[in-house]
Amino acid sequence: MKKWRCQVCGYVHDGDTPPENCPKCGAPQEKFAEIPEAESSLITRSRITNQLQMEFYSLLERIKEVAEMGVEDALDPACVSLFNQALKSATELQQSIKAEIAVHISKGKWG
Ligand SMILES: [Zn+2]
Asked: Which CATH architecture has domain 1-35?
């Protein structure tokens, strides 16, 4: 599918023609420029990856919740240690995901 970018705000529209007005900034149709095929397929590809990254991020959020419950439960030191380790790893992975997504945005691999 063709993609169009608002030259005013960067909003990306999927469709055969650009929208009447930009849904984000209200700019008229003529402010939209068609995104070249190579960049367009990169955007499509990146959407999938970015979606997976976000799904992964929310799963890690769930892991942190469970780990925190485990820490509070505090049955014995070995358990607490394991839950703390999970908490630390999940937090580090989340920070890595945020950094990766930031790179995608800065390189224009997001739209
Ligand atoms: Zn716009």
From this structure: Single Sheet (2.20)
